[in-house]
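During the reporting period the student researcher (J.K.) took over the structure-prediction task from the postdoctoral fellow and processed the backlog of single-chain submissions. One of the processed entries is reproduced below for the supervisory committee.
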Amino acid sequence: MLISNSTLHGGGYLDHAEKEIRDFVGSRTRVVFVPFAVHDRRAYAAKAQERFRDMGLSLTSIHDLSNMPRAVDEADVIFVGGGNTFRLLKGLYDHNLLVPIRRSVAVGVSYIGSSAGSIVACPTLKTTKDMPAVQPPSFEALGLVPFQISPHYLDPDPSSTHMGETQEERIMQFLEENEELVVGLREGSILRVEDSTVTLKGPNAARIFRRGEKPVEATPGSNLCALLEETVSRAGRVA
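J.K. obtained the following structure tokens:
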């Protein structure tokens, strides 16, 4: 489950995603939280623990554990929170967690990512908008899905006086150099990926970008596989 944003305007932390999270995890109760995207991991973990406790789930932050790979192996659910994507990916490399997470998801462990946590589920972090506050060893990420996500996607505002690139222009720049398809996830949007199905959840459409083609819109509730074509079907089971 790949969430565009952790907090939606007018609501609290993960409020807009609670129903989808509850349905996604089902009877699974043991959640391992990866807080590496923020500097104050203790405060972030406390916030996540309280929120998941309200959903009836037991959450343990991986930064409190001595054997992090084993914690991933034993988890029912892996939740990777948002923040700075460069810092998050560097943490995954520093603690040798990319392979254990890939392995766990491949055998059916549920993965939930939010914002930066959604981006690192992609092949690379190249569609992040974050400042490179730290330098990970590589831009290569988890590769749980074969497409890229651009979370917090904002449409161009014709009334804006801002003269910098729009998010659409930045994605087009990415596609000038890269082949991976990009899904622009607007605020409140969620991708639920199961087997060969990619379902768009939430109130907003998603914008699909492919190299050399005009962007297209995917409607809420639709299966994106028809738009993503065989790119997604080759991913197999990823959740």
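The committee noted the following: The chain has one domain: 2-233.
J.K. will present the remaining backlog at the next meeting.
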